[in-house]
Amino acid sequence: MFNGILYNTRFKPLACILLIAVYAPLFCASSKPAEVQQPSYNPYRTLAQFCMPTLAGQMIEENKKDLELVKAIAEKTTKLPPFDIAQLRVNPVEKLSMAYAILAATTTSEYSSAQDVLAEGTIRDLKLFSAQGDSKPLFDTLDNTQTTFGKIQLQKILLEPCSDIFLLEQRQLIIKNLIDNEPLLNEITTQLEKIKNVEPMFFWFWKLSSVPTIEEFNKYDGPWFNNSPFARQMWGSLANFMKLVTLGFAALSTAVSITIAINDWRREYLWGPGLLGMALTLWSGIYFFQSHRKAQSDMYAIHATMNNIALFVNTSVTLGGLVEKNTHLRILFPDYGLLKNVFQSSAAHGKELVELLSKSTFTSNPSFFSYQGRAQVAFKLFNELKDQMTQALIALGQLDAYAAIAKLYKKYAQDPKTPFCFPKYVDMDKQSLNIDNAWLPGAPESSDPRITSMAILLAQSFGIAPAQSMTLTPCNKINATTPIS
Length: 485
What we know:
The chain has 485 residues and is an all-alpha fold.
Protein backbone atom coordinates (compact mmCIF):
# COMPACT_ATOMS: atom_id res chain seq x y z
CA MET A 1 0.00 0.00 0.00
CA PHE A 2 2.80 2.36 0.94
CA ASN A 3 4.64 1.63 -2.36
CA GLY A 4 1.44 2.19 -4.32
CA ILE A 5 0.93 5.56 -2.76
CA LEU A 6 4.49 6.56 -3.61
CA TYR A 7 4.03 5.32 -7.21
CA ASN A 8 0.88 7.36 -7.71
CA THR A 9 2.58 10.44 -6.33
CA ARG A 10 6.05 10.03 -7.84
CA PHE A 11 5.47 13.15 -9.93
CA LYS A 12 4.39 15.07 -6.86
CA PRO A 13 7.52 15.65 -4.75
CA LEU A 14 5.72 17.73 -2.17
CA ALA A 15 3.20 14.95 -1.56
CA CYS A 16 6.01 12.39 -1.17
CA ILE A 17 7.75 14.55 1.38
CA LEU A 18 4.51 14.88 3.34
CA LEU A 19 3.86 11.13 3.27
CA ILE A 20 7.36 10.35 4.48
CA ALA A 21 7.02 12.93 7.26
CA VAL A 22 3.79 11.27 8.44
CA TYR A 23 4.78 7.58 8.21
CA ALA A 24 8.48 7.67 9.13
CA PRO A 25 7.97 8.45 12.84
CA LEU A 26 5.62 5.49 13.12
CA PHE A 27 8.27 3.08 11.84
CA CYS A 28 10.99 4.67 13.94
CA ALA A 29 8.86 4.56 17.06
CA SER A 30 8.05 0.89 16.60
CA SER A 31 11.75 0.04 16.52
CA LYS A 32 12.32 1.35 20.09
CA PRO A 33 12.08 -1.24 22.87
CA ALA A 34 9.15 -0.67 25.22
CA GLU A 35 10.10 0.66 28.61
CA VAL A 36 9.41 -1.70 31.49
CA GLN A 37 7.03 -0.07 33.95
CA GLN A 38 8.27 -0.88 37.44
CA PRO A 39 5.56 -1.49 40.03
CA SER A 40 5.06 1.29 42.57
CA TYR A 41 5.89 0.55 46.18
CA ASN A 42 4.75 2.17 49.40
CA PRO A 43 6.28 0.39 52.43
CA TYR A 44 3.59 1.55 54.85
CA ARG A 45 0.75 0.30 52.68
CA THR A 46 2.60 -2.99 52.25
CA LEU A 47 3.04 -3.33 56.02
CA ALA A 48 -0.64 -2.56 56.60
CA GLN A 49 -1.59 -5.29 54.12
CA PHE A 50 0.50 -7.84 56.00
CA CYS A 51 -0.21 -6.81 59.58
CA MET A 52 -3.76 -5.48 59.84
CA PRO A 53 -5.71 -8.61 58.74
CA THR A 54 -4.20 -10.61 61.61
CA LEU A 55 -5.45 -7.98 64.08
CA ALA A 56 -9.06 -8.05 62.85
CA GLY A 57 -10.28 -10.08 65.83
CA GLN A 58 -8.55 -7.80 68.32
CA MET A 59 -9.99 -4.77 66.52
CA ILE A 60 -13.54 -6.13 66.98
CA GLU A 61 -12.97 -6.60 70.72
CA GLU A 62 -11.51 -3.12 71.08
CA ASN A 63 -14.46 -1.59 69.21
CA LYS A 64 -16.86 -3.36 71.59
CA LYS A 65 -15.06 -1.77 74.55
CA ASP A 66 -15.34 1.64 72.89
CA LEU A 67 -19.10 1.19 72.38
CA GLU A 68 -19.53 0.20 76.03
CA LEU A 69 -17.66 3.35 77.06
CA VAL A 70 -19.89 5.52 74.86
CA LYS A 71 -23.02 3.92 76.37
CA ALA A 72 -21.69 4.49 79.89
CA ILE A 73 -21.19 8.19 79.14
CA ALA A 74 -24.56 8.44 77.37
CA GLU A 75 -26.32 7.10 80.47
CA LYS A 76 -25.03 10.07 82.46
CA THR A 77 -26.15 12.72 80.00
CA THR A 78 -28.83 12.89 77.33
CA LYS A 79 -26.46 14.59 74.90
CA LEU A 80 -22.74 14.07 74.57
CA PRO A 81 -20.98 17.45 74.53
CA PRO A 82 -18.52 17.56 71.58
CA PHE A 83 -15.39 17.55 73.70
CA ASP A 84 -16.45 14.52 75.72
CA ILE A 85 -15.62 12.53 72.57
CA ALA A 86 -12.00 13.61 73.05
CA GLN A 87 -11.81 11.62 76.25
CA LEU A 88 -12.59 8.35 74.47
CA ARG A 89 -9.51 6.22 74.06
CA VAL A 90 -7.86 5.36 70.75
CA ASN A 91 -7.22 1.64 71.12
CA PRO A 92 -3.86 0.04 70.15
CA VAL A 93 -5.10 -1.53 66.92
CA GLU A 94 -6.74 1.72 65.87
CA LYS A 95 -3.52 3.61 66.62
CA LEU A 96 -1.54 1.23 64.40
CA SER A 97 -4.04 1.50 61.55
CA MET A 98 -4.09 5.30 61.75
CA ALA A 99 -0.29 5.48 61.90
CA TYR A 100 0.02 3.39 58.72
CA ALA A 101 -2.44 5.73 56.98
CA ILE A 102 -0.68 8.90 58.21
CA LEU A 103 2.73 7.74 56.97
CA ALA A 104 1.46 6.20 53.72
CA ALA A 105 -0.42 9.38 52.77
CA THR A 106 2.76 11.46 52.78
CA THR A 107 5.17 8.85 51.39
CA THR A 108 5.71 8.76 47.63
CA SER A 109 4.89 5.42 46.03
CA GLU A 110 7.76 4.43 43.77
CA TYR A 111 9.79 1.40 42.75
CA SER A 112 12.27 0.16 45.37
CA SER A 113 15.00 -2.46 45.06
CA ALA A 114 13.89 -3.70 48.50
CA GLN A 115 11.01 -5.41 46.68
CA ASP A 116 13.53 -7.67 44.94
CA VAL A 117 15.49 -8.70 48.06
CA LEU A 118 12.52 -9.97 50.05
CA ALA A 119 9.61 -11.25 47.95
CA GLU A 120 6.05 -11.28 49.24
CA GLY A 121 6.00 -15.08 49.31
CA THR A 122 9.18 -15.13 51.39
CA ILE A 123 7.64 -12.73 53.92
CA ARG A 124 4.69 -15.08 54.35
CA ASP A 125 6.84 -18.22 54.49
CA LEU A 126 9.11 -16.73 57.17
CA LYS A 127 5.99 -15.68 59.14
CA LEU A 128 7.51 -12.27 59.72
CA PHE A 129 4.37 -10.25 60.38
CA SER A 130 1.56 -12.79 60.51
CA ALA A 131 1.10 -16.36 61.65
CA GLN A 132 -1.73 -18.84 61.81
CA GLY A 133 -3.25 -20.39 64.92
CA ASP A 134 -1.66 -19.75 68.28
CA SER A 135 1.83 -19.15 66.90
CA LYS A 136 3.26 -15.62 67.07
CA PRO A 137 4.80 -13.74 64.15
CA LEU A 138 8.59 -13.57 64.36
CA PHE A 139 8.42 -9.79 64.53
CA ASP A 140 6.63 -9.96 67.88
CA THR A 141 9.61 -11.74 69.43
CA LEU A 142 11.96 -9.03 68.14
CA ASP A 143 9.91 -5.95 68.99
CA ASN A 144 11.13 -3.83 71.91
CA THR A 145 9.80 -0.48 70.71
CA GLN A 146 7.87 1.94 72.91
CA THR A 147 5.82 3.95 70.41
CA THR A 148 3.49 3.10 67.56
CA PHE A 149 5.70 4.93 65.06
CA GLY A 150 8.75 3.08 66.42
CA LYS A 151 6.98 -0.24 65.88
CA ILE A 152 6.20 0.66 62.26
CA GLN A 153 9.74 1.86 61.53
CA LEU A 154 11.17 -1.37 62.99
CA GLN A 155 8.78 -3.31 60.74
CA LYS A 156 9.95 -1.20 57.80
CA ILE A 157 13.62 -1.96 58.55
CA LEU A 158 12.81 -5.68 58.58
CA LEU A 159 10.72 -5.39 55.42
CA GLU A 160 13.55 -3.68 53.51
CA PRO A 161 16.79 -5.65 53.96
CA CYS A 162 19.77 -3.78 52.60
CA SER A 163 22.69 -5.05 50.51
CA ASP A 164 24.67 -1.80 50.79
CA ILE A 165 27.61 -2.56 53.10
CA PHE A 166 28.23 1.10 53.93
CA LEU A 167 24.65 1.65 55.10
CA LEU A 168 24.68 -1.58 57.11
CA GLU A 169 27.90 -0.62 58.88
CA GLN A 170 26.49 2.85 59.61
CA ARG A 171 23.46 1.21 61.21
CA GLN A 172 25.74 -1.01 63.28
CA LEU A 173 27.64 2.02 64.56
CA ILE A 174 24.37 3.58 65.77
CA ILE A 175 23.40 0.37 67.59
CA LYS A 176 26.86 0.00 69.15
CA ASN A 177 26.82 3.61 70.29
CA LEU A 178 23.52 3.06 72.11
CA ILE A 179 24.70 -0.23 73.64
CA ASP A 180 27.94 1.30 74.94
CA ASN A 181 26.15 4.37 76.32
CA GLU A 182 23.65 2.82 78.71
CA PRO A 183 22.61 6.12 80.42
CA LEU A 184 21.74 7.58 77.01
CA LEU A 185 19.79 4.46 76.03
CA ASN A 186 17.86 4.55 79.33
CA GLU A 187 17.08 8.25 78.96
CA ILE A 188 15.85 7.74 75.39
CA THR A 189 13.65 4.89 76.60
CA THR A 190 12.24 7.07 79.39
CA GLN A 191 11.37 9.87 76.97
CA LEU A 192 9.79 7.42 74.52
CA GLU A 193 7.59 6.06 77.33
CA LYS A 194 6.24 9.58 77.87
CA ILE A 195 5.23 9.73 74.22
CA LYS A 196 3.66 6.29 74.45
CA ASN A 197 1.46 7.44 77.33
CA VAL A 198 -0.02 10.40 75.43
CA GLU A 199 -0.37 8.70 72.04
CA PRO A 200 -4.16 8.10 72.39
CA MET A 201 -4.82 11.84 72.65
CA PHE A 202 -2.31 12.55 69.87
CA PHE A 203 -4.03 10.19 67.42
CA TRP A 204 -7.44 11.59 68.35
CA PHE A 205 -6.71 14.61 66.12
CA TRP A 206 -6.87 12.31 63.09
CA LYS A 207 -10.25 10.87 64.07
CA LEU A 208 -13.42 12.08 62.40
CA SER A 209 -14.76 13.22 65.77
CA SER A 210 -12.30 16.12 65.71
CA VAL A 211 -14.17 17.77 62.82
CA PRO A 212 -17.37 18.79 64.69
CA THR A 213 -15.15 19.67 67.63
CA ILE A 214 -13.32 22.28 65.54
CA GLU A 215 -16.63 23.63 64.25
CA GLU A 216 -17.90 23.96 67.81
CA PHE A 217 -14.65 25.64 68.77
CA ASN A 218 -15.02 28.21 65.98
CA LYS A 219 -18.40 29.35 67.31
CA TYR A 220 -17.01 31.02 70.38
CA ASP A 221 -15.36 34.17 69.08
CA GLY A 222 -15.94 34.25 65.33
CA PRO A 223 -13.58 33.77 62.37
CA TRP A 224 -11.55 36.96 62.94
CA PHE A 225 -10.20 35.77 66.29
CA ASN A 226 -9.60 32.24 64.99
CA ASN A 227 -7.49 33.49 62.09
CA SER A 228 -5.35 35.72 64.28
CA PRO A 229 -3.30 33.85 66.93
CA PHE A 230 -2.21 37.13 68.52
CA ALA A 231 -5.79 38.41 68.72
CA ARG A 232 -6.99 35.15 70.25
CA GLN A 233 -4.28 35.22 72.92
CA MET A 234 -5.16 38.83 73.73
CA TRP A 235 -8.83 37.91 73.83
CA GLY A 236 -8.02 35.11 76.25
CA SER A 237 -6.11 37.52 78.47
CA LEU A 238 -9.03 39.96 78.35
CA ALA A 239 -11.43 37.15 79.24
CA ASN A 240 -9.35 36.32 82.32
CA PHE A 241 -9.30 40.01 83.28
CA MET A 242 -13.07 40.22 82.87
CA LYS A 243 -13.46 37.18 85.13
CA LEU A 244 -11.50 38.97 87.83
CA VAL A 245 -13.57 42.14 87.34
CA THR A 246 -16.80 40.14 87.45
CA LEU A 247 -15.77 38.28 90.59
CA GLY A 248 -14.59 41.53 92.19
CA PHE A 249 -17.84 43.26 91.34
CA ALA A 250 -19.83 40.29 92.65
CA ALA A 251 -17.82 40.30 95.89
CA LEU A 252 -18.28 44.06 96.33
CA SER A 253 -22.00 43.85 95.55
CA THR A 254 -22.40 41.00 97.99
CA ALA A 255 -20.52 42.88 100.72
CA VAL A 256 -22.58 46.04 100.21
CA SER A 257 -25.82 44.05 100.11
CA ILE A 258 -24.92 42.20 103.30
CA THR A 259 -24.04 45.46 105.06
CA ILE A 260 -27.33 47.06 103.99
CA ALA A 261 -29.26 43.94 104.97
CA ILE A 262 -27.68 43.90 108.44
CA ASN A 263 -28.65 47.53 108.96
CA ASP A 264 -32.18 46.75 107.73
CA TRP A 265 -32.46 43.80 110.14
CA ARG A 266 -31.35 45.99 113.03
CA ARG A 267 -34.19 48.31 112.15
CA GLU A 268 -36.44 45.25 111.83
CA TYR A 269 -36.93 46.03 108.16
CA LEU A 270 -36.54 42.48 106.79
CA TRP A 271 -37.50 43.09 103.17
CA GLY A 272 -35.33 46.11 102.50
CA PRO A 273 -32.97 46.86 99.56
CA GLY A 274 -30.15 44.87 101.20
CA LEU A 275 -31.99 41.57 100.94
CA LEU A 276 -33.14 42.44 97.44
CA GLY A 277 -29.54 43.25 96.46
CA MET A 278 -28.31 39.92 97.85
CA ALA A 279 -30.99 38.09 95.87
CA LEU A 280 -30.10 39.92 92.65
CA THR A 281 -26.37 39.31 93.19
CA LEU A 282 -27.00 35.62 93.81
CA TRP A 283 -29.23 35.32 90.76
CA SER A 284 -26.77 37.14 88.48
CA GLY A 285 -23.89 34.99 89.74
CA ILE A 286 -25.79 31.79 89.09
CA TYR A 287 -26.80 33.04 85.63
CA PHE A 288 -23.23 34.04 84.78
CA PHE A 289 -21.66 30.73 85.75
CA GLN A 290 -24.49 28.69 84.23
CA SER A 291 -24.24 30.51 80.90
CA HIS A 292 -20.48 30.04 80.82
CA ARG A 293 -20.43 26.49 82.13
CA LYS A 294 -20.58 24.82 78.71
CA ALA A 295 -17.91 27.07 77.20
CA GLN A 296 -15.76 26.69 80.31
CA SER A 297 -16.09 22.89 80.16
CA ASP A 298 -15.01 22.90 76.52
CA MET A 299 -12.07 25.18 77.30
CA TYR A 300 -10.97 22.81 80.06
CA ALA A 301 -11.07 19.96 77.55
CA ILE A 302 -9.07 21.98 75.01
CA HIS A 303 -6.46 22.81 77.65
CA ALA A 304 -6.21 19.20 78.88
CA THR A 305 -5.88 17.96 75.30
CA MET A 306 -3.12 20.43 74.50
CA ASN A 307 -1.25 19.49 77.69
CA ASN A 308 -0.85 16.01 76.19
CA ILE A 309 0.12 17.36 72.77
CA ALA A 310 2.65 19.69 74.41
CA LEU A 311 4.19 16.72 76.23
CA PHE A 312 4.43 14.83 72.93
CA VAL A 313 6.06 17.74 71.06
CA ASN A 314 8.35 18.82 73.90
CA THR A 315 9.52 15.24 74.44
CA SER A 316 10.34 14.99 70.73
CA VAL A 317 12.43 18.15 71.05
CA THR A 318 14.13 16.68 74.13
CA LEU A 319 15.01 13.51 72.20
CA GLY A 320 16.56 15.62 69.45
CA GLY A 321 18.62 17.41 72.09
CA LEU A 322 19.83 14.11 73.59
CA VAL A 323 21.10 12.96 70.19
CA GLU A 324 22.68 16.34 69.47
CA LYS A 325 24.70 16.21 72.69
CA ASN A 326 26.26 12.88 71.67
CA THR A 327 29.22 13.67 69.40
CA HIS A 328 29.10 10.41 67.43
CA LEU A 329 25.36 9.83 67.35
CA ARG A 330 24.51 13.24 65.92
CA ILE A 331 26.77 12.46 62.93
CA LEU A 332 25.38 8.95 62.47
CA PHE A 333 21.77 10.08 62.93
CA PRO A 334 21.46 13.50 61.25
CA ASP A 335 17.65 13.33 61.33
CA TYR A 336 17.76 14.45 64.96
CA GLY A 337 17.19 17.93 63.54
CA LEU A 338 13.67 16.85 62.52
CA LEU A 339 12.94 15.99 66.14
CA LYS A 340 13.92 19.48 67.28
CA ASN A 341 12.03 21.17 64.45
CA VAL A 342 8.90 19.06 64.79
CA PHE A 343 6.94 20.82 62.08
CA GLN A 344 8.45 21.36 58.65
CA SER A 345 10.36 24.63 58.44
CA SER A 346 8.13 25.70 55.55
CA ALA A 347 4.98 25.26 57.62
CA ALA A 348 3.39 28.57 58.59
CA HIS A 349 3.32 29.15 62.36
CA GLY A 350 5.33 25.92 62.91
CA LYS A 351 8.03 27.48 65.09
CA GLU A 352 5.44 29.62 66.80
CA LEU A 353 3.49 26.52 67.83
CA VAL A 354 6.60 24.73 69.16
CA GLU A 355 7.48 27.80 71.24
CA LEU A 356 3.88 28.13 72.40
CA LEU A 357 3.69 24.51 73.58
CA SER A 358 6.85 25.00 75.64
CA LYS A 359 5.09 27.58 77.86
CA SER A 360 4.25 26.80 81.48
CA THR A 361 0.54 26.99 80.58
CA PHE A 362 0.72 23.42 79.30
CA THR A 363 2.37 21.96 82.39
CA SER A 364 -0.51 22.91 84.72
CA ASN A 365 -4.01 21.53 85.06
CA PRO A 366 -6.90 23.51 83.53
CA SER A 367 -8.52 25.96 85.94
CA PHE A 368 -10.92 28.87 85.95
CA PHE A 369 -8.03 31.30 85.54
CA SER A 370 -6.03 29.29 83.00
CA TYR A 371 -4.56 31.14 80.02
CA GLN A 372 -7.38 29.95 77.76
CA GLY A 373 -6.44 32.10 74.77
CA ARG A 374 -3.05 30.38 74.60
CA ALA A 375 -4.68 26.92 74.77
CA GLN A 376 -7.15 27.88 72.02
CA VAL A 377 -4.39 29.10 69.72
CA ALA A 378 -2.34 25.93 70.27
CA PHE A 379 -5.38 23.74 69.64
CA LYS A 380 -6.24 25.42 66.35
CA LEU A 381 -2.65 25.62 65.08
CA PHE A 382 -1.92 21.98 65.86
CA ASN A 383 -5.06 20.84 64.06
CA GLU A 384 -3.92 22.84 61.01
CA LEU A 385 -0.26 21.76 61.11
CA LYS A 386 -0.49 18.15 62.27
CA ASP A 387 0.09 16.79 58.75
CA GLN A 388 3.33 18.79 58.52
CA MET A 389 5.05 16.73 61.22
CA THR A 390 5.22 13.43 59.33
CA GLN A 391 9.00 13.61 58.80
CA ALA A 392 9.49 14.21 62.52
CA LEU A 393 7.28 11.20 63.29
CA ILE A 394 9.41 9.05 60.97
CA ALA A 395 12.60 10.27 62.67
CA LEU A 396 11.03 9.58 66.07
CA GLY A 397 10.13 6.06 64.93
CA GLN A 398 13.64 5.44 63.59
CA LEU A 399 15.25 6.45 66.89
CA ASP A 400 12.81 4.21 68.76
CA ALA A 401 13.61 1.35 66.34
CA TYR A 402 17.39 1.72 66.83
CA ALA A 403 16.92 1.79 70.60
CA ALA A 404 14.78 -1.36 70.32
CA ILE A 405 17.52 -3.17 68.36
CA ALA A 406 20.08 -2.17 70.98
CA LYS A 407 17.82 -3.49 73.75
CA LEU A 408 17.29 -6.72 71.80
CA TYR A 409 21.06 -7.23 71.61
CA LYS A 410 21.50 -6.49 75.33
CA LYS A 411 18.60 -8.78 76.25
CA TYR A 412 20.41 -11.89 74.96
CA ALA A 413 23.97 -10.74 75.63
CA GLN A 414 24.17 -12.62 78.94
CA ASP A 415 23.08 -15.97 77.52
CA PRO A 416 25.96 -17.82 75.77
CA LYS A 417 23.51 -20.24 74.13
CA THR A 418 21.44 -17.61 72.35
CA PRO A 419 23.60 -14.55 71.70
CA PHE A 420 23.34 -11.90 69.04
CA CYS A 421 26.45 -10.81 67.13
CA PHE A 422 27.44 -7.99 64.83
CA PRO A 423 27.99 -9.63 61.41
CA LYS A 424 31.01 -8.77 59.30
CA TYR A 425 30.24 -7.86 55.71
CA VAL A 426 32.62 -8.71 52.85
CA ASP A 427 32.40 -7.39 49.32
CA MET A 428 33.00 -10.34 46.97
CA ASP A 429 31.82 -11.27 43.50
CA LYS A 430 30.94 -14.73 44.74
CA GLN A 431 28.36 -15.25 47.47
CA SER A 432 30.00 -16.01 50.81
CA LEU A 433 28.41 -17.07 54.13
CA ASN A 434 30.13 -18.23 57.29
CA ILE A 435 27.82 -18.59 60.30
CA ASP A 436 28.43 -20.17 63.72
CA ASN A 437 25.65 -21.52 65.96
CA ALA A 438 22.70 -19.70 64.45
CA TRP A 439 19.38 -19.91 66.29
CA LEU A 440 15.81 -18.73 65.74
CA PRO A 441 14.44 -16.00 68.06
CA GLY A 442 11.38 -17.31 69.85
CA ALA A 443 12.42 -20.93 69.35
CA PRO A 444 16.13 -21.25 70.36
CA GLU A 445 16.03 -25.07 70.56
CA SER A 446 14.31 -25.45 67.21
CA SER A 447 15.79 -27.04 64.09
CA ASP A 448 13.54 -24.83 61.98
CA PRO A 449 14.74 -24.56 58.34
CA ARG A 450 14.17 -20.80 58.52
CA ILE A 451 17.09 -20.32 60.93
CA THR A 452 19.73 -19.41 58.35
CA SER A 453 17.36 -17.26 56.31
CA MET A 454 16.33 -15.32 59.42
CA ALA A 455 19.96 -14.83 60.44
CA ILE A 456 20.75 -13.40 56.97
CA LEU A 457 17.61 -11.24 57.01
CA LEU A 458 18.40 -9.77 60.43
CA ALA A 459 22.03 -9.23 59.46
CA GLN A 460 20.91 -7.22 56.42
CA SER A 461 18.16 -5.30 58.24
CA PHE A 462 18.82 -4.86 61.98
CA GLY A 463 22.59 -5.09 61.58
CA ILE A 464 22.73 -7.86 64.21
CA ALA A 465 22.23 -11.61 63.82
CA PRO A 466 21.18 -14.47 66.15
CA ALA A 467 24.47 -16.39 66.07
CA GLN A 468 27.85 -16.65 67.80
CA SER A 469 29.54 -15.08 64.80
CA MET A 470 28.72 -14.37 61.18
CA THR A 471 30.52 -13.24 58.03
CA LEU A 472 28.62 -12.79 54.79
CA THR A 473 28.40 -11.13 51.44
CA PRO A 474 25.03 -9.31 51.49
CA CYS A 475 22.45 -11.15 49.38
CA ASN A 476 20.44 -9.58 46.60
CA LYS A 477 17.72 -12.20 47.15
CA ILE A 478 16.68 -13.88 50.41
CA ASN A 479 14.65 -17.10 50.25
CA ALA A 480 12.48 -18.61 52.96
CA THR A 481 14.86 -21.52 53.51
CA THR A 482 18.61 -21.26 52.97
CA PRO A 483 20.68 -24.39 53.70
CA ILE A 484 23.90 -23.90 55.66
CA SER A 485 26.94 -24.58 53.49
